[in-house]
Amino acid sequence: MRASILTLLLIAAAGTASAGELYRWVDEDGKVHYTDQPPPPQARNSERKRLGDRPGDGPTSYAMQQAMKNFPITLYVVSECGESCKSAVAYLTRRGIPFTQKDGHQDAEGLKALTGGSMVVPVATVGATVLRGYEEGTWKATLDAAGYPSAPVGPPRAAAGKPATSNGAAPTTPAQPAQAAN
After folding, report:
1. What is the CATH number of the domain that holds 135?
2. How far apart are CA 161 and CA 47, in angstroms?
3. Domain range holding 92?
4. Is the confidence at residue 163, as pLDDT, over 60?
5. Closest C-alpha among 138, 7, 144, 124 to residue 67
6. Where does residue 49 fall: left (phi above 0), alpha (psi -120 to 50 degrees), or beta otherwise?
7. Is residue 52 part of a domain?
8. Is residue 25 part of a domain?
9. pLDDT at res. 132
């Protein structure tokens, strides 16, 4: 009887441990950290991702975990982008690759920094590599080189929600609208 209760408690604890949060943040020296604990107040560029809420939300393979750690993906789109942005989102989703999606209007400064001042979308970062516009062959080669699986392992993944900021403030809206790449 006691062993059965202990076993049930362990199973329940394992289930809640798998459904958690992952934090990505940058320290004052520019080093990127991934932890299951909230970042310190002085952390820059913090993002919170929920894992295990739905099937396929968490990393499913060692290769995926390593690719996510070494080459995290952020995709900048805008609502009026059209087919280019839709194709980029669909491609990442079809491959089962987790990514953080940002609105190019709300994070105009980040987008301009990646593109040298241009507001052309979609733009994706795969680690330090910047992909401007959507061309499936280029995206495939870059994601393959980063170690992402070429086919989904488990159910397709959805884009992550808006990342949390370190101070909880809402992103600002840019003065200029973004232009879509065709």
Report:
1. 3.40.30.10
2. 10
3. 60-180
4. no
5. 144
6. beta
7. no
8. no
9. 94
Q: How many domains does the chain have?
A: 1
In a domain, 4, yes or no: no
Give the pLDDT confidence of 167-182 residue by residue, as tens digits.
333 333 333 334 444 4
pLDDT tens per residue across span 49-85: 655 444 445 546 888 899 999 999 999 999 898 899 9
Higher local confidence (pLDDT), 137 or 59? 137
- Tokens matching residue 31: 């080093």
Count, residues in the chain: 182
Helix, strand, coil distribution of the chain in percent, nearest 5: 35, 25, 45
Strand partners, 74: 100, 125
63: amino acid identity, one letter: A
- Residue 171 belongs to a domain: yes
| 16: its two tokens | 């809640």
